[in-house]
Structure formats: structure tokens, C-alpha cells
Amino acid sequence: MTLDDTDRRILNHLQEGFPIAPDPFALVAAELALDEADLIARLERMREARVITRFGPFFDAAAMGGAFCLCAMAAPEDEFDRVAEIVNARPEVAHNYARSHALNMWFVLATETEAEIAEVAEALTRATGHEVLCFPKLQEFFVRFRVAA
Questions:
Q1: Which residues pair with 69 in a beta bridge?
Q2: Which of 7, 59, 123, 136 has CA atoms 20 to 30 A from the CA of 44?
Q3: DSSP letter at 79?
Q4: Pairing of strands 105-111, 67-73
Q5: Is the model's pTM score more than 0.70?
Q6: Domains and CATH numbers, the chain
Q7: Stretch 32-56: mean pLDDT, rounded?
Q8: Is the pLDDT of residue 28 over 90?
Q9: Interval 103-130: pLDDT, tens
Q10: Could you give the CA distance from residue 38 to residue 4 in angstroms, rounded to a whole number?
């Protein structure tokens, strides 16, 4: 898929936030001088083409009283899809990525309590047969990461 100037304006604009309102798409469309249906169609097209992989809020589990942790696994290539299916089936799992490294599967666990991180990691280790390594946050840095489309 090739992005046109309007697609790029949409992507750049939405990285700055999305309104919490009864008609958020209408508000964004108006801000961009677009038709609401066109905005939604463009977002759907970009998602289907995997230009954007997700469109939704990012919740800070820790700020809501929960916990989150970066985790990694060494999943053998011939088992990778099976292991990914098991990992991805857990509702606590987000942001699962394949990497070119000995630790080739990286994902985030988000749970209601700190203790649940270890419980879910252990359950995934048992279910997959491969150890889940947990890398808890030591210090948080806010980085205002934006990608110019």
C-alpha cells in the first residue's frame, strides 16, 4: 500500500491523541477537514494493509494499580507458531514480537497484580515447554516517541 498525503496527515495527527467523546471520529475528521466515513475507511485500509497494526488506547497497567513486565522466550523455529499461539491466547499478553536473536519472542504481560506476573509466566512456561524470562521495569522514562509518516 502506498500512503498519500492525507494518510500521512491522519497518522501524524492521531499520534498526538484521540478524543474521548461520543463522536471521536467526527471530531478528528473535522480537525483534518475530512469526511468521517473517509477517515474511518482510510484507517481500516491502513490496518488491513498492516501499515498500522493496532488502533486503540494504551493503558498504563501500573497506574491503574496493576503490573506489567517485558518477557522473552527462546522458541525453537520449528515450534515458534505453536508457542506464539499459546502465548497470544492469554488475555494478559500484549505486544508479542518475533526477533532475530536467541531470545526470539518478546511480549508484555499486563496483570491486575504484581504476583500475577510470575503466575502467568510460570503457566506459559508449563504450557509451552519453554522458559519465560521476565525483565521487570527498574525505572520508567517517558519518551514521547512519534514516527513521522
A1: 109
A2: 59
A3: G
A4: antiparallel
A5: no
A6: 5-48 (1.10.10), 67-135 (3.30.70.3460)
A7: 92
A8: yes
A9: 999 999 999 998 999 999 999 999 999 9
A10: 13
Q: Which three cell numbers stand for residue 127?
A: 504450557
Q: How many residues does the chain have?
A: 149
Convert the pLDDT of each residue in 125-147 to its tens digit.
999 999 999 999 887 777 676 77
Residue tagged 491466547 (cell numbers):
89
d(CA 36, CA 16): 18
The three cell numbers of residue 58 are 494504551
Coil, helix or strand at residue 17: coil
CB < 8 Å & 24+ apart, contacts of 84-89: 86/124, 86/127, 86/128, 87/124, 87/128
Q: Which grid cell is 85?
A: 499461539
Amino acid identity of 38? D
Q: CA angle, 27 as apex, 142 and 30 as ends, to 5°?
A: 115
Strands of 105-111's sheet in order across: 93-98, 105-111, 67-73, 133-135
- Please report the pLDDT score of residue 66 as a whole number: 84
Paired with 133 in beta bridges are 72
